[in-house]
Design goal:
9 strands, alpha/beta, 2 domains, 14% strand, Rossmann fold
Length: 305
């Protein structure tokens, strides 16, 4: 793997294909490489609450034979009790890798700039690359990634950013559809389009969800109100009217299309209850793959040192 840190999925470069292949192999046998990281410790830091990220990362580290060291945001007090650069240099003396779920991507970059061990982004306001790895792994279980058409419906958030970048790297055509004012960041779109041009794919941002879903192979959505934006909930409910993924909207996609959601889901908002239980909904396979993808990523980062 040609990276020291994993803050954006684009950090993997050509290593993306290997991580996905390794994740698929690790899924076939949960005991495979069970002692690969024996004797090491991995720091897992959380400023945001978490279900899938917390459990998948902790179990992944343990199944690889390393010791997971859990750190809560209030214990460390980044930028209040202690400067990020000091925390980074201290953690580097204790653990072999630190994975962090943070409010601000700037904090993550400050940690990475002063850490002598690999830093992994478990979620920031700008990017959710570990989720995108699991998403790509799930899609690859059903079809070849190059040429696949993915339609993302909803907030142009950190998940949308990572899907654009990862999809472009994998040769996928990705369409992001969001209401005015909720589109993905322009610089991320520009980077994704550059990657897409190198891999023969296309990135589109539009405000029309129905046209985005027509002919799609994958339909994906996320909550309309992400963590840290709860005060915007009422405004977002109004702005996102018409962007709910329902069975009727999903019927516009290709007959063998699959549905994905990174969870947690708010039934009756961004997705109908029936859509989550649809025969072609693979949201729980997607959740499981957070474990296998994280294993493959950590192995690549630590064994490449």
């Amino acid at each position: 793997m040609n990276t020291h840190n994993f803050l954006m999925i684009s950090d993997l470069g050509a290593g993306l294909e290997k991580v996905l292949a390794d994740a698929a192999t690790l899924k076939q046998d949960r005991t495979r490489r069970h002692d690969a990281l024996a004797g090491l410790s991995v720091g897992l830091f959380f400023e945001h609450p978490s279900t899938r990220t917390r459990i998948s990362s902790e179990v992944a580290v343990a199944e690889l034979g390393a010791h997971p060291v859990m750190l809560r945001g209030e214990e460390v007090g980044l930028s209040s009790r202690e400067a990020p650069e000091d925390v980074a240099r201290v953690l580097s003396r204790y653990v072999s890798l630190v994975a962090m779920r943070v409010r601000s991507h700037d904090t993550l970059e400050a940690i990475a700039a002063h850490s002598s061990v690999p830093v992994v982004n478990l979620l920031s306001d700008r990017s959710h690359p570990c989720q995108a790895l699991a998403d790509l792994q799930t899609i690859a279980e059903h079809r070849s990634l190059p040429g696949t058409r993915l339609a993302y419906i909803g907030d142009g958030n950190n998940v949308a950013h990572s899907l654009m970048l990862g999809g472009a790297m994998a040769g996928m055509h990705v369409t992001i559809t969001a209401p005015p004012g909720f589109e993905p960041a322009e610089d991320i779109v520009a980077t994704a389009k550059e990657l897409a041009s190198k891999h023969g794919s296309e990135i589109v941002v539009t405000g029309d969800p129905r046209s985005a879903v027509e002919g799609a192979d994958v339909v994906y959505t996320d909550v309309w109100t992400s963590m840290g934006r709860e005060e915007e909930a009422k405004r977002r409910l109004e702005a996102f009217a018409g962007y709910q993924v329902t069975e009727e909207m999903f019927a516009l996609a290709n007959p063998d299309a699959i549905f994905l959601h990174c969870l947690p889901a708010h039934r009756g908002e961004e997705v109908s209850a029936g859509m989550l239980e649809h025969p072609r909904s693979y949201v729980f396979d997607q959740a499981e793959n957070r474990l296998h993808a994280f294993k493959a990523l950590v192995l690549g980062l630590l064994e490449g040192q």
